[in-house]
Amino acid sequence: MVAKLLGTLIILAALTIGYTILKDDLDLPKKSGKKSSETCVQLTPAQQLAKMINDDFQTLEAEGQLPAEWKDIATVEIRMNSTLARTLLGKERPNIQRVKQGANYLELEIVDLPDDENPGVIIQASLFNIKSRNKIFEIGRTYTMNDLNRVTTEKTPEAPVKKDGTTSGTTTPTPAAKETTAPPAVNTPPPADK
DSSP letter string over 59-98? Predict the structure, then answer.
């Protein structure tokens, strides 16, 4: 009898210790009084790009930058004209919300953004009415590799401009400013004396 009681206590102690150690891994429903910890989900590059596109369009819709017809999309046609997007996305596609009996269709054309330092993709989204085939709305969005990798670029602060058009203080020219300067004049030899 004592052996059975002692064995039961040891088993209960082992179950309690096991539950205490593994309670976070068991995915049991959390009590409403406690804070729930967010789980970290690792996304593939395809899922990251598709999520970035979906989140961008949802943000545009929430800010009212998309027309009301955007909520009435029946079909989405994706034209993949981008080798980068084709490589990154594979079979993954952006998930634009559709309505079964919608009156509009959305055409997404994805093309490459030719940039050696920060390549990316450009999405040209065109919204058409199904019956009339008239274009209702069009928007272009650019997604770069820095956006995908969450890389922030440093911006050079600009000097304030005075009323006479000059700047106060000294600043270094930005790379864009260097590209817009005119090329140096070509020196031509003086005419030879005869």
Answer: HHHHTT-S-GGGGGEEEEEEEEE-HHHHHHHTT-------
